[in-house]
């Protein structure tokens, strides 16, 4: 009788290995940030396509404030040009840009310590795109899984060149200010790898032994995944999100209509009861407790009690943020002033970087 050799365990995928390495590196980076925050410059930001919501807040926004308060140099880009990656026109752009500024001020981003600016207002940043595009191949862009996913979910009838080159645009956004740290989710790691590739190839081709750009590190966080009120991914475009600008009544209405299940006993079971688990997680984040502790407090009181608990927790947590937002919203001239100052600061940095690039490429005439 033939004896079969034991089956070797499957090797982890390249994606799994990359994510594991990024998590290990992120732990090291967190320690270095605490020890010497001044060594780091962070580039992060959003596309102005609507108001930011609780998924954004607990996923990324509160981390921006944390890094700022630790002493990291924070650049926040409002990527208005990139609105056109997956849509034909940029509707209500001015309003959406101001709303993003309001959201950042309300959560604690300090324009005296951080730079908030718009993509379109920094011409030198966009001039980096041409030399950067020459450093990557069409095949490399084609293989990018994040681009594939974004194309699959695109709102456009045909894929634009802007969508295809989106990772290189992001490379320009990051490298213009020589950011060496980029907070990202796991799905954004392929984009950041393109940025690292661009930086490395530019340095090899034009650096003459002196690197022009850093190869930025990913800072992965254990950002919680909050579902929308319909049980799917929380998204501005799906109308299933609780925005930071929502008032207490609107929040109560949205949570009241949130999807749950028929089981009366409330328990935290992300795999088996994802909608209930997401609501418990939201309440827990607002209360500073674990989802299991929140669930234990509700017990067999049912979905109505769960929704009351979530509503009270969210409204209490957001009350000071909403108050600050309302105060800032009364002075739109102040918002525009913040953008003017941030744009001027970003332009000065970009102009200096572009001058270095032209010198390295020997086209500084």
TrEMBL record:
Group of enzyme by EC: ligase
Similarity comment: Belongs to the class-I aminoacyl-tRNA synthetase family.
Family matches, as Pfam families: tRNA-synt_1b
An example molecular function term from Gene Ontology annotations: ATP binding
CDD domains named in the record: TrpRS_core
PANTHER family from the UniProt entry: TRYPTOPHAN--TRNA LIGASE, MITOCHONDRIAL
Annotated GO CC locations: cytosol
Organism this protein belongs to: Streptomyces sp. R44
Catalytic activity reported: tRNA(Trp) + L-tryptophan + ATP = L-tryptophyl-tRNA(Trp) + AMP + diphosphate + H(+)
Record's protein name: Tryptophan--tRNA ligase
Keyword Transferase tagged: no
Keywords: Aminoacyl-tRNA synthetase, ATP-binding, Ligase, Nucleotide-binding, Protein biosynthesis
């Amino acid at each position: 009788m033939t004896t079969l050799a034991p089956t070797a365990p499957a090797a982890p995928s390249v994606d799994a290995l990359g994510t594991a390495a990024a998590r290990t590196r992120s732990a090291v980076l967190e320690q270095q940030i605490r020890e010497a925050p001044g060594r780091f410059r962070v580039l992060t930001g959003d596309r102005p396509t609507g108001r930011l919501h609780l998924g954004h807040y607990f996923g990324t926004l509160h981390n921006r404030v944390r890094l700022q308060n630790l002493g990291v140099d924070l650049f926040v880009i409002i990527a208005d040009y990139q609105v056109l990656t997956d849509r034909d026109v940029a509707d209500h752009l001015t309003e959406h840009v101001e709303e993003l500024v309001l959201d950042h001020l309300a959560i604690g981003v300090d324009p005296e310590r951080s730079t908030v600016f718009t993509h379109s207002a920094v011409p030198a940043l966009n001039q980096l795109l041409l030399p950067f595009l020459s450093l990557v191949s069409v095949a490399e862009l084609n293989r990018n899984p994040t681009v594939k996913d974004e194309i699959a979910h695109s709102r456009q009838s045909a894929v634009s060149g802007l969508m295809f080159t989106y990772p290189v645009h992001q490379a320009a956004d990051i490298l213009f200010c020589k950011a060496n740290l980029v907070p990202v989710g796991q799905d954004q790691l392929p984009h950041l790898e393109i940025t690292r590739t661009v930086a490395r190839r530019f340095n090899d081709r034009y650096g003459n032994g002196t690197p022009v750009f850093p190869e930025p590190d990913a800072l992965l966080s254990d950002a919680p995944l909050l579902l929308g009120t319909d049980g799917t991914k929380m998204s501005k475009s799906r109308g299933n999100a609780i925005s930071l600008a929502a008032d207490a009544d609107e929040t109560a209405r949205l949570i009241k209509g949130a999807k749950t299940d028929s089981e009366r006993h409330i328990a935290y079971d992300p795999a088996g009861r994802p909608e209930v688990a997401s609501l418990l997680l939201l309440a827990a984040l607002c209360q500073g407790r674990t989802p299991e502790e929140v669930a234990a407090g509700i017990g067999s009181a049912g979905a109505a009690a769960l929704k009351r608990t979530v509503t009270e927790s969210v409204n209490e947590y957001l009350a000071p943020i909403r108050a600050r937002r309302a105060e800032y919203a009364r002075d739109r001239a102040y918002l525009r002033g913040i953008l003017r100052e941030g744009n001027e600061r970003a332009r000065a940095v970009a102009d200096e970087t572009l001058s270095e690039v032209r010198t390295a490429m020997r086209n500084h005439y």
